[in-house]
Specification:
By secondary structure, the chain is α/β, with parallel strands linked by helices. The chain has 9 helices and 10 strands. It has one domain: Rossmann fold, CATH 3.40.50. This is Enterochelin esterase-like enzyme.
């Protein structure tokens, strides 16, 4: 049975205006940790597919558990919601809304969060997280904004040819740290564009590309398919990889 303390979560719904997104705004879900105090400062985990990370990934419950039972330093989670109809266009580097979404994230979202919430303002305190194409856009955000992001959680990253080509153009990625997992049953995933991909193969390829340019990779393969039931199991380890125990 889940400890009742883990279910006492503070999640604030917010809306951020945007000049880079066609809709002019984006919905956010903000998790505030136990003992939240505006006089303190907190690391921030930025999640693509924000609604899914909270509802299916159970990331807020996991955060409470890590903070209350394992002594992990309290942190804020920002879940950025997405319209599924535009998800590929925003998350894929060859999508027609990708550049606008990336600009929204780096130029609008981060300053907004750091002006409204007591978020720590250094790269070591910002973590990007995403599943599938969410892992892809998280990597591309780190490549586009090297002064903002160095740390990426990729759960079964959809590293299609366009993404691998961009990574290959980078010379030195020694600043990057990635937590990457993939499921061994993800060998024939059909994308929404109709192409079938072997996710094990493409994640292995991206690992080689990134490591060849100096990135530090925490990589593992597990039994699992391209579903939240698999990713949810590995969110605790993903968070532990970048968040530390309180001093």
């Amino acid at each position: 049975m889940t400890d009742a303390r883990y279910l006492k979560r503070t999640i604030v719904k917010d809306v951020i205006p945007s000049q880079n997104l066609p809709e002019g705004e984006r919905n956010l879900r903000i998790y505030l940790p136990p003992g939240y105090n505006e006089l303190l400062s907190y690391p921030v985990v930025y999640c693509q597919d924000g609604e899914q990370f909270f509802n299916f990934g159970r990331i807020a419950t996991t955060a409470n558990q890590l903070i209350l039972d394992e002594g992990i330093e309290p942190f804020i989670i920002v879940g950025v919601e997405v319209d599924i109809a535009h998800r590929t266009a925003e998350y894929s580097p060859d999508g027609d809304r990708h550049h606008g979404y990336v600009a929204f994230f780096g130029d609008e979202l981060v300053p907004y969060i750091e002006s409204k919430y007591p978020a720590r303002r250094d790269k070591s305190a910002r973590i990007l997280a995403g599943d599938s194409l969410g892992g892809t856009v998280s990597l591309h955000l780190a490549l586009t904004y090297p002064d903002l992001f160095d740390q990426v959680i990729s759960l079964s990253g959809a590293f299609y040819p366009a993404s691998r080509a961009i990574a290959e153009q980078s010379a030195d990625l020694s600043r990057l740290s990635l937590f990457m997992i993939v499921g061994l049953q993800e060998t024939a995933f059909k994308s929404d564009r109709g192409t079938v991909y072997d996710f094990v193969a493409i994640n292995r390829e991206m690992k080689v590309i990134l490591e060849g340019r100096g990135a530090r990779i925490n990589y593992s393969e597990h039994n699992g398919d391209h579903v939240w039931g698999f990713w949810q199991q590995h969110i605790p380890d993903a968070l532990r990889a970048f968040l530390h125990e309180e001093a």
